[in-house]
Amino acid sequence: MTVLSEDLIAEANAREIAALDEDYDALGRKLARGGLAIDAIKDRVAAFSVAVPSWGAGRGGTRFAKFPIPGEPTNIHEKLEDCAVIQQLSRVTPRVSPHFPWDKVGDYKGLRQEAAALGLGFDAVNSNTFQDQPGQAHTYATGSLSSTVAATRAQAVEHNIECIEIGQQLGSRDLTVWVGDGTNFPGQQDFARSLDRYLEAASEVYAALPDDWRMLLEHKMFEPAFYSTVISDWGSSILAAQELGPKAKCLVDLGHHAPNVNIEQIVARLHRFGKLGGFHFNDSKYGDDDLDSGSINPHQLFLVFNELVEAEQHPRDGFDPSYMIDQSHNVTDPIESMLASAEAITGCFAKALLVDRAALHAAQDGNDTMMAFQALRRAYTIDVAPILARARVEAGGAIDVLATYRESRWRERKAQERKPVGLGAGIV
Ligand code: LRH
Ligand code: MN
């Protein structure tokens, strides 16, 4: 079942196809001069995918405010509809990463079928022990998996295990565990004992993982804690993952690092030690801004994918990272932001495929600094849009995803159907 009219997409593409063919053929000739077959790159792009966050389908906000838009989704069913729009137009976002209890329903098998009917599957499930739920026995105000209160740790363990059980019904195979646990004052907690409590509780979650599942530990430097965070950086994360076992991997949220941290090197390190589990793609200028991927620092996103293509060619003990978007759409139509972000992410993957790795490695081994840098820069400056559009149109998607989305008047139509979302604050 498609949510947008296929005729609308076909008519929009018909207006664009001649120009696309011209651009694609011209780029094909340019790449062929460098020994690259454009169709081979296009086929890799066609096989690429990134999951969208259910919580990204609605407007996001900050602690100060959230400004809802008419027609935004109000529950997981409407969020899946909007994610289906993104997939139908982009053809690179076939999976949704859900968050619990935000996406809680009574029938998860039914939800899986509902998603499948919309052409969607589920990626990693996300637990939430950073908010208290109505009627919750033990507060997470002073921590969850690392809390000094045993009953609170047990509650957090139980919630994560419940997320695994839900994920099994949805067909997921990863549990993403981000805890906001930390302190706001020096002395508030002991760094070592906090981590030990976290490791002990996390090992109980680990023990509940089915054989083919993974636990993705998500590090974050600060927020909601502003003096120390239990899993604050890739070092704490990889040590915790090594301590927990082979099914524990590290998830890199691009916004969870101090400004100017070399994230692409962190990616290379995590892969080197077999602990690269996945990504939350977004962009930021200051803190965990959760801005659209590639909107502030597209070169960094390219350099991350350059490391991923390098890692894929040197898989060591396995290369299977989960690619997911994690953004907060505070000022745009969330569908438009995720369409543009999927394009930016796929574009950086395509550019990384265009790097002449033989030339790069030769220059690196020969300490020819300029030619090593130029091997990356040459690929980065190539406009890969014709490759992405050709892969999309061949898969039934739109050549111009944003123009076609606007032409569909989806948001205006949903504004007639859906109940308005109340004013509020915070991420969802
Ligand atoms: C924490 C985080 C985490 C999610 C949340 C929505 O900042 O990146 O991945 O659980 O955002
Ligand atoms: Mn994240």
Strands side by side in the biggest sheet: 4-5-7-9-10-11
Bound molecules: 6-deoxy-beta-L-fructofuranose, manganese (II) ion
Largest sheet: 6 strands, parallel
Secondary-structure element pattern, one letter each: HHEHEHEEHEEHEEHEHEHEHHHHHH
The average pLDDT score comes to 97
How is this structure best summarized?
By secondary structure, this protein is of the alpha/beta class.
Written overview of the protein:
With 428 residues, the protein is of the alpha/beta class. Helices cover 48% and strands 9% of the residues. The protein contains 15 helices and eleven strands. The strands form three sheets. Strands 4-5-7-9-10-11 form a six-stranded parallel sheet. α9 links the parallel β10 and β11. α1 crosses α13, α3 packs across α10 and α8 runs parallel beside α9. The mean pLDDT is 97. The structure holds 6-deoxy-beta-L-fructofuranose (LRH) and manganese (II) ion (MN). Manganese (II) ion (MN) binds next to loops. The site of 6-deoxy-beta-L-fructofuranose (LRH) has 10 residues, from loops.
Keywords:
alpha/beta, 6-stranded parallel sheet, 428 residues, binds 6-deoxy-beta-L-fructofuranose, 3-stranded parallel sheet, binds manganese (II) ion, 48% helix, 15 helices, globular
